[in-house]
Q: What sequence folds into this?
């Protein structure tokens, strides 16, 4: 291998004239474009998955424990004092547990009205997602009494109601055949571009919703679990909670029947959509990998055609077919290396530029994002380059066998 590498390093790739004098540049360009397309495809898919997943989890918890039957014994709420220890024992380190409520309501302004779902969040709730998407105002500190009647609404709801920061909106809560009215002050307006949720989701104080529903301070209509990390952890925690809560219900028949659902079920539509995108990326990667392999095979034949005379002289001096094959494979891999370097450089430039400027826009109504997201972990980047290199090397083994069919006597006379 050392002799083959020595020869391959000293042979020029380009020729001033003759067959294939411009083919090498075309080959490098073709490989570069294939690598750029593959890297950008993976980057966009990874970015979409991360952004959409973060938005979904921002609105819906990774795992939710709620009453199985909202009308069971007239009790549609959970007692945190009875469940907190059981749930905490089933969670990995770093997971967060938050009592919440979701209450349908109608917000009435002089210009219009809007049906909303108000999510009650407690003091200390991880509201980084909504706070990071605020376009006006600030996320209230719900540990203060002064924020009891503060609410955060989406820009879609604000535009429909003609509401702005500081406005007070009459909000009607219905249940049990009666309705209650609270005048809530708009403390913040958010816009996630996730219109399916933005159209109806608002945030308010959990103590205020408990007050409206006449529930005790230790109650919750749902217990949200977040900070689990991977999809595998989400499914594992869900299964574990189902087992533990079933055992608790058997031990204490007075316990409210509970259901455990995770984000893969409540947002199955979006995860299925992302799975379809995975299929598209797999097709693109396959086509681009085939294009790279065909380009390298063509380059190998060009290199052999240009150096038939050299092959004959090497054979006449006693060089084996295996040595010459290794030499031309290594020479072709130089083309691959140039293509990989150029392709990686171009792809990295596009990704960094898009992340910094967002120059490639999207329609938020169709894609839930206002620009193309791009994210490519270093591991995926290295894996793709390694896979392309290994596949290319394997593909070159077969066509390089043509060298063994070239007789030295005819090859030396070849022009």
A:
């Amino acid at each position: 291998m050392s002799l083959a590498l020595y020869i391959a390093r000293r042979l020029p790739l380009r020729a001033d004239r003759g067959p294939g004098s411009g083919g090498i540049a075309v080959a490098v360009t073709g490989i570069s474009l294939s690598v750029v397309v593959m890297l950008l495809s993976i980057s966009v898919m990874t970015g979409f998955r991360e952004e959409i997943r973060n938005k979904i989890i921002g609105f819906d918890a990774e795992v939710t424990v709620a009453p199985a039957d909202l009308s069971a014994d007239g009790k549609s709420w959970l007692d945190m004092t009875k469940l907190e220890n059981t749930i905490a024992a089933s969670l990995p380190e770093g997971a967060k547990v938050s009592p919440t409520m979701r209450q349908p309501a109608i917000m009435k302004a002089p210009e219009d009205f809007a049906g909303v779902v108000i999510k009650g969040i407690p003091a200390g709730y991880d509201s980084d997602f909504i706070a990071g998407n605020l376009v006006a105002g600030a996320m209230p500190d719900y540990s203060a009494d002064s924020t009891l009647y503060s609410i955060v609404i989406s820009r879609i709801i604000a535009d429909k109601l003609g509401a702005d920061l500081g406005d007070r909106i009459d909000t009607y809560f219905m249940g049990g055949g009666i309705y209650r009215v609270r005048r809530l002050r708009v403390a913040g307006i958010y816009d996630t571009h996730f219109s399916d949720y933005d159209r109806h989701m608002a945030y308010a104080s959990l103590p205020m919703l408990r007050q409206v529903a006449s529930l005790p301070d230790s109650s919750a209509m749902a217990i949200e679990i977040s900070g689990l990390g991977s999809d595998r952890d989400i499914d594992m925690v869900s299964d574990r909670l189902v087992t533990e809560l079933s055992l608790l219900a058997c031990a204490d028949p007075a316990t409210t029947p509970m259901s455990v659902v995770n984000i893969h079920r409540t947002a199955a539509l979006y995860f299925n959509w992302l799975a379809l995108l995975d299929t598209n990326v797999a097709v693109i990667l396959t086509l681009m990998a085939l294009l790279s392999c065909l380009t390298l095979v063509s380059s190998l034949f060009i290199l052999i055609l240009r150096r038939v005379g050299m092959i004959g002289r090497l054979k006449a001096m006693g060089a084996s077919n295996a040595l010459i094959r290794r030499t031309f494979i290594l020479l072709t891999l130089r083309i691959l290396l140039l293509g990989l370097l150029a392709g990686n450089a171009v792809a990295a430039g596009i990704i960094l530029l898009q992340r910094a400027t967002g120059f490639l826009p999207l329609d938020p109504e169709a894609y839930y994002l206002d620009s193309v997201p791009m994210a490519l972990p270093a591991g995926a980047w290295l894996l793709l380059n390694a896979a392309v290199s290994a596949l290319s090397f394997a593909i070159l083994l077969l066509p390089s066998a043509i060298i063994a069919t070239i007789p030295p006597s005819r090859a030396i006379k070849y022009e």
